[in-house]
Amino acid sequence: MIDFAATKALFHIPDGVIYLDGNSLGAMPKTAAARAKAMISDEWGEMLIRGWNDARWMEQPTRVGDLVARLIGAAAGTVVMGDTLSIKVYQALASALEMNPDRKVVVSDNGNFPTDLYIADGLIKSLDKGHVLKTPNPEDVESLINEDLAVLMLTHVDYRTGRMYDMKRITKMAHDAGAIVIWDLAHSVGAVPVDLAGCEADFAVGCTYKYLNGGPGAPAFIYVRPDHAQTVRPALSGWLGHAAPFAFDLEYSPAPDVSRMRVGTPPVIQMTVLEEAMKAWDGVEMADIRKRSIELCEQFIAGVEASCPMLELASPRDANKRGSQVSFKFADGYAVMQALIARGVIGDFRAPDIIRFGFTPLYIDNNDVDGAVKILAEIMETRAWDKPEFHKRNAVT
Predict the structure, then answer these.
(1) Which of 296, 302, 309, 311 lies closest to 355 in space, CA to CA?
(2) Is 35 a catalytic residue?
(3) Is the pLDDT of residue 396 over 90?
(4) What is the pLDDT of residues 281-313, one digit of tens each?
(5) Of the listed 19, 209, 328, 363, which one is catalytic?
(6) Strand 180-184 and strand 203-206: pairing?
(7) Average of pLDDT values for 253-260?
(8) For this structure, is 209 an active site residue?
(9) Does the pLDDT of residue 397 top 90, yes or no?
């Protein structure tokens, strides 16, 4: 069993803060700053260009990819790091559509993170081949899994409510219908157990600045099922996805594995911070994380519902259908969250009326939950949220 007191000690949490926003930006590992400084001074500063070989920068996207792969049920050599999540969504969808050329329907849902839908819409318009993007309510997705479906592209855990799809069952349904499946794991990796290999998912993408604590701007990842990796065409055929980048051939020849999904120069400084952050996962099993997460979420829900009847649970009540976050609805939710932040309880707000709390067992414990519930109850009981300064919208909510 994980010693969660020991893992909490690995992270810097400012004094007086209860941090319940790790589902948006993870806390900083205490060793991250020193590792970044050493990389900049000792590697970039002293090695200069030699760092690509001597510090193994060139191998970093696959080396770190293997660390992520362990947490999502993927084999070594099937995950590669780099670029942003939006880029990886584009790559996965473009490749998936080419794998199913006779079908024109892409299905997602209207609860998906908007950037996934924007990327899909933009790609479809660029292709101009008659593809259609359908975004039904999440509960209606299965009704559109049929012989017309080219690609099913879903986010495993809903960013607003934490609602979680049954990945294995839905992937099988889509495959039985002849469709390709893409999973966005932005709110899953490091939060809930995932078994990409066991589910036979075709593609998966995700970010690393949330539960993996890689820091703002940490690189995204893409998974490609091994039997696809030698045949999918990367729509963004960058030089580092080439089989021999330093041959400088004028014609593109993709790498023979998932490395073909590399595009340009990796963000080495940021990836170094992520690689350091991944040390917190040494010896950690996702089953233990999940058990602890459910315990913390259930404690929070019970406490809030007992003391704040004016808040409506927006997340699934069944823990088996919920990720590692809890959301409540309130008409003035933005102001409530600002009042909480002013009292040192940091969560976030998602339009139109969701106050959202992430539970990251590596550094959140039962005392944090009790403290957050107490402060939230005080704010709601006294209407402390109803002050002009708490209604003023910031650029980031």
Answers:
(1) 311
(2) no
(3) no
(4) 999 999 999 999 999 999 999 999 999 999 999
(5) 209
(6) parallel
(7) 96
(8) yes
(9) no
Is 348 annotated in a binding site? The answer is no
**116 labeled binding residue:** yes
Q: Is 210 a catalytic residue?
A: yes
Q: Is pLDDT above 90 for 329?
A: yes
Amino acid symbol at 277: A
Q: Confirm if 350 and 337 have CB atoms less than 8 A apart.
A: no
Q: Is 265 annotated as a binding residue?
A: yes
Tokens representing residue 243 in the block: 């089989």
Among 143, 146, 97, CA closest to 123: 97
245 labelled as ligand-binding? no
Q: Are strands 325-329 and 312-313 parallel, antiparallel or unpaired?
A: antiparallel
**DSSP letter string, 225-250:** -TTTTTTPPPSS--GGGBSSGGG--S
356 counts as catalytic: yes
CA neighbor of 224 nearest in space, from 85, 88, 348: 88
As a whole-number percent, the residues of the chain with pLDDT over 90 amount to 99
Q: How far is it, in rounded angstroms, from Cα 38 to Cα 41? A: 5
**16 neighbors 344 (Cβ within 8 angstroms):** yes
The first and second tokens of residue 49, run together, are 């260009």
User: Contact, 60 vs 268, CB < 8 A?
Assistant: yes
Question: Does residue 1 carry a pLDDT above 90?
Answer: no
Give the 3-state secondary structure of residue 122: helix
How far is residue 357 CA from its own chain's centroid? Answer: 15
Query: Once rounded to an integer, what is the mean pLDDT over residues 368-391?
Result: 97
3-state secondary structure of 124: helix
Residue 239 annotated as lining a ligand binding site: yes
